[in-house]
Request: fold
Amino acid sequence: MATATTTEITFDELGLAARNHALPLEALRHDVTPVGLHYLLIHYDIPSVDAQTWRLEVGGAVDRPLTLTLADLRSRPSRTVAVTLECAGNGRALLAPRSVSQPWLNGAVGNAEWTGTPLAPILEEAGVRAEGVEVVFRGIDRGVQGDVEQSYERSLPLADALADDVLLAYAVNGQPLPPQHGFPLRLVVPGWYGMTHVKWLAAITVVDEPFRGWQQDVSYRIRQSEDEQGTPVTRIVPRALMVPPGIPDFLTRTRIVEAGRCELQGRAWSGWGPIEHVEVSADGGETWADATVEPGPSRFAWSSWRFEWDAAPGEHVLSCRATDATGRTQPLDAEWNFDGFCNNAVQRVPVVVRAATR
Ligand SMILES: Nc1nc2c(c(=O)[nH]1)N[C@H]1C(S)=C(S)[C@@H](COP(=O)(O)O)O[C@H]1N2
Ligand SMILES: [Mo]
Reply:
């Protein structure tokens, strides 16, 4: 990935942004994100898959390779779980200098109900051999990235792949997966950044040495320069976002709010531990006060928060900050890295409060 030399967004970035949309922040109001409002990230093209001829191949270092149809998967025990998914590149465009890629501001998130069948029993049926160390998940989609032609592929250490909450999902919010979210089958790994949740799954392969594919070994690593090996991106670091209050200015999205009591609300999540508290600042991060937090329906679904703000006339910058049970929290200023991953610096929402008209 290249680093941008100007602050202006390029046409390449605009093209990516127009294909891969964010969650409109007002949609944080929905407990479960309606499918069309959930963010999207598609590296290459959305495959068009015939469910009749599609098969999932489970193989590699296993005793009994399996070939499964969609009907086979649907006839297995099913589970539905609410999971907050966030792209590891969320916040990338707010870094300076920024890496030239999908230029997310902060809306690359959604909270959906995924239905599928647990992965662990399938791996057990296939019989993972003693030499198996990782499991590689391959999507049908192909493209070129970093000058390398590739299928979209990511791996998980065996222990993480065998975790009880990892699903092979064929439905979202009670409907078959739509093409853009991975029809007919995707991986769901609660708590991990989006790149782990491989869509359009074609093959699951147990390997006897760490996977060195491009999306594993070159990308999705926190590094300060291109030559550095860096450390892998795994679980989601905490973030809180607010429903932008009042009404927006069309172009700048600056919020216009009437003076007086203003109820702020939003969501907060972390892949490392439950959200312990959310704080709100109305002075750009100088002073903070606690919001009321209500946990979500499952461990990896976002929590809700509320805060009564006494809006005084004038210009303000609103921020919110989440802290999880491990003590992880959000910085005021972004922590820069070469590819622009995991930027969970606090949201800044400029608001103009005008004297009440009534
Ligand atoms: N096969 C495949 N799986 C994929 C991707 C992809 O391009 N191809 N993108 C990944 C990334 S980077 C993210 S953030 C999530 C986005 O999931 P969504 O579009 O369903 O929100 O899917 C992941 N799974
Ligand atoms: Mo992503």
Remarks:
- The chain has five helices and 22 strands.
- The longest helix spans residues 11-19.
